[in-house]
Amino acid sequence: MEKAIICKDLTKQFGDFAAVNKISFDVNAGEIFGFLGANGAGKTTAMRMLCGLSYPTSGEATVAGFNVYKQQDHIKRNIGYMSQKFSLYESLTVQENIRFFGGIYGLSDKALKDKSNSLIERLGLQAEAKKRVSELPLGWKQKLAFSVAIIHQPKIVFLDEPTGGVDPITRRQFWDLIYEAADDGITIFVTTHYMDEAEYCNRISIMVDGRVEALDTPTNLKHQYKVETMDEVFYQLARAAKRSGE
Amino acid sequence: MQPFNRLNHRTLMGSVIIEHIKKTYDKGNVLALKDVSFTVNEGELFGLIGADGAGKTSLFRILTTLLLADEGKATVNGYDVIKDYKQIRGCVGYMPGKFSLYQDLTIEENLNFFATLFATSVEENYDLIKDIYEQIKPFKDRRAGKLSGGMKQKLALCCALIHKPAVLFLDEPTTGVDAVSRKEFWEMLKRLKEQGITILVSTPYMDEATLCERIALIQNGNILSIDTPENITKAYPRKLYALTASVVHKILSDVKAYPEIASCYSFGEFLHISFKNDGKDNTKELLQHLSQKGFKDVTIKEIEPTVEDCFIELM
Q: How far apart are CA B112 and CA B115, in angstroms?
């Protein structure tokens, strides 16, 4: 099976503190991979290394076939990224944001125009195309941000708590978009604090104190820990954590 | 009424009464709250449940006298939010959604600062914060800006409690917090409630609603429903079923398109579905229909609705 991410003994050390401590896992191409963990477990640090934003201290990893030490620029061109905190420029309009991010990812003028129109149409944002993003409700912003993050058809998209604070219907519509992207062959790497969303992933990993303590399908994990819900799996693992943090 | 324990020398309980509050921004162009009315009883743990942008923070800021409503009336602990703003500021604790303590003061300095501001001392009210403060005490000389999310949250709660408020306002204290820390935080709230403090807490997490005595569901500045979590879920208008199969998301569009379906939403490994007419043998017919489409391993069972089911129904 083709691998989108291969990670072996990946470590990030800050002084004598191992924020990420020898994590090893693979993500299959086209998979929806949930990356869970308690606050401070090391998720953000691990994600930054995989996105080519920070060098590992030791270990190996390739993302979309590129080496995290030597080919950070290639990684950045082949992935998409979206977080709850920052994804779009609030003072630019919907169209301007699409043009800006499409331009950054090197889309041609023609491709940009086509993409922009089809994207606005698909999200039903025709009436809002010339409005500033700051005027959109949060749910629409998040859906737009996701579409912009995959505008260049990346091999992998990293989603950092994409549905935080979003209403229950929009949250589900957002997952419809994730499934569509996955059906298009984009690998999804997603973090969330909603345990029902963990169930929507093909496989999930759970980080505790810098290590990957569990990795399997939601069904297998529930079997393994002999519980009914992912919430209980998470609770059993994260409760043992010594660290707490951002 | 709950018996007071250590705090019986002073009336701690306070109620919150909100009548027809309306708030707009941007010269009336953005409607944040339209005609909101409800009452939080003395000593109650009351939850305001809604997504970002629903109007929760606007309401909290009006009640804590930091923002003026366009219309309507509100009292906190018997004081009017406009006329008696000084008294209100003295008798409420407010923990905003955004961390708002002094980043360059230490844990201990922040706590002393807020105690002094309210003309009291940490020692005087130590009983109230003891449980929470002892968890962060080992780090008391660390600057607030250098604390982890969970520790910041505990410090902010201590600072909001240090003057023994009658009413505690907590604006999304658990947003972005992992599932384990969220459980711990709600344990702390339960213990505070037992000490007689009225607590108004907001959250976007529907599963936390059941931990409150009563809740208000809020969306786009409208209150959708106010009641106990039990009564809200009991009021769900139809029978609700959970459908499961090996590839649930592939079935979703077929179930949605089935003519007898009234609602269909993903809930983890299940689809929660309801039918337009509960009188019929719906589940059997749906199973047959799905079987014809090639989905053979489908099971359907009747379930009790959750607050999230009800919220979606009311939206």
A: 5
pLDDT along chain B (315 residues), means of 10: 39 79 93 96 96 93 97 96 95 92 96 95 93 92 88 92 95 86 89 93 93 96 96 97 88 93 94 94 95 93 96 95
A-chain residues near B182 (CB < 8 A): 193
On whether any CB of chain B is under 8 Å from the CB of A39, the answer is yes
**Chain A residues inside the 8 Å CB shell of B186:** none
The pLDDT score that the predictor gives to residue A244 is: 60
* Mean pLDDT for chain A overall: 92
Which domains, and CATH codes, for chain B? 16-233 (3.40.50.300), 236-314 (3.30.70)
Q: Under an 8 A CB cutoff, do B266 and A172 touch?
A: yes
CB-based contact, B177 to chain A, within 8 Å: yes
- List of long-range contacts for A168-171, beta carbons under 8 Å, 24+ apart: A168/B51, A168/B206, A168/B265, A168/B308, A168/B311, A168/B312, A168/B315, A169/B265, A169/B312, A169/B315, A170/A138, A170/A139, A170/A142, A170/A143, A170/B51, A171/A197
- Strand B261-267 with A66-67, pairing: unpaired
- What does the DSSP assignment read for B185-228? HHHHHHHHHHTT-EEEEEES-GGGGGGSSEEEEEETTEEEEEE-
Identify the residue among B98, B139, B147, B178 best suited for mutation to test binding to A, counting A beta carbons within 10 A and taking the highest: B178
Q: With an 8 Å Cβ cutoff, are B315 and A179 in contact?
A: no
Q: What is the pLDDT of residue B8?
A: 37
- Chain center to CA of B40: 13
- Give the ipTM of the model, two decimals please: 0.84
- Give the CATH number for residue A173: 3.40.50.300
pLDDT at position B303:
96
Give the model's pLDDT for residue B13.
Answer: 54
B268/A137 CB distance under 8 A: no
Total number of domains in chain A: 1
| Model confidence at A218: pLDDT above 50 | yes
Instruction: Assess if residue A150 is contained within a domain.
Output: yes
pLDDT in tens, A147-162: 999 999 999 999 998 9
From residue A53, how far is each of A45, A73, A227, B165 by CA, in Å?
A: 9, 10, 37, 45
pLDDT(A85) > 90 = no
Full residue range of the structural domain in which residue A193 is found: 31-41+79-238
CB contact under 8 A, B180 and A169: no
In a domain, A109, yes or no: yes
CA atoms within 13 A on the CB side of B82: 9
